[in-house]
Design goal:
The structure is a homodimer. By secondary structure, chain A is α/β, with parallel strands linked by helices. Helix content of chain A is about 45%, strand content about 20%. A seven-stranded mixed β-sheet of chain A has the order 6-7-5-4-8-9-10. Chains A and B meet through helix 1, helix 5, helix 6, strand 9 and helix 9 of A and helix 1, helix 5, helix 6, strand 9 and helix 9 of B.
Chain lengths: ~200, ~200
Amino acid sequence: MEKISEFTVRRLSNYYRILLDLEKRGIPTVSSARLAELGGITSAQVRKDLSYFGNFGTRGLGYSVTELKNAIVEILGLNRQWTMALFGAGSLGHALFFHEGFREDGFYFKHVFDVDPKKVGTKWNDVDITHQRNAEEVLRRDPVHIAVVATPPEAATDIIELLVRAGTKGILNFAPTQLTVPDGVWLRNVNLAVALESLSFYLSM
Amino acid sequence: MEKISEFTVRRLSNYYRILLDLEKRGIPTVSSARLAELGGITSAQVRKDLSYFGNFGTRGLGYSVTELKNAIVEILGLNRQWTMALFGAGSLGHALFFHEGFREDGFYFKHVFDVDPKKVGTKWNDVDITHQRNAEEVLRRDPVHIAVVATPPEAATDIIELLVRAGTKGILNFAPTQLTVPDGVWLRNVNLAVALESLSFYLSM
């Protein structure tokens, strides 16, 4: 598989949501033009994105909604369970931990770490909140696929380092700071301001 | 200005962050190849994106970091103040309200609405939490540019309708539900699972 950009993967997530919605509404097939319209991009882009992964369409009939959805589920790795550890039991961490969409997609938290003595020792659902100083040991003994960092920015660098030492391969960072990781570790920075910047762009026009 | 896709605008946000970082590190110029490398996309894509907005580069010298950053600030509408109303004073709403990155970009909350009688009548910083039944009246009297919806999905449809009636033109929706708005209103749905799906894609390879 050739190198696929993060933007292509994002569009695949977008197609996945559109296809889920079409499937729920009982619509059996979709053209690249219609997918493009629903996704707000060109049909040439849709055909290019899907061409990376093989040949799903039939000329003149379009794509089978369910087949294409299932193919994207497999491509995105959503046909399996992904375990996660949360760093930071503040309000963002709380919102992420209890976000229903994650569990529906196969992502679930099995560890929560914080440094606040009022939070350490309590539970969210059946998950203990553990002191962050024990995180490396806990993650070596009971590893996760993905760590979610929802701490203040000044705490994030140390956490990334302990995650790399513990062998965690996927990191989703919400802390507003630029971080780097060694090869073989996948880091995604989520910037909550990006969607606002898209609105301000369109509202400025 | 021709129609610019949401993906182009997202990449501009991405360039903006990279340029901010280069500027902080005192780096005066950047080539499209280097911008592409830092942004994880092709240099052809970088040149294409920036070509929508005029001619910032000098052949052989690359782009002036500060000039290009300032041009993108203007394009994204970040050289002004944007007022916002928050719907939903739960943990996600709390995280968004207190998110420092928004205020730095010129986005600030002036209203918070919720339906919980324990929250209504209290304040976050100097902003009153008002009952959602009064939202339409409050927003007619004291409008905002952008409404941020951080409520459960079943509440979102009614909120979108009241926002459209109140004349709010920009809506950032975090509720995991598909919503539609009339022409002239800009809606962005933020799906927190999308970044996880990007990780699961790369971790599956």
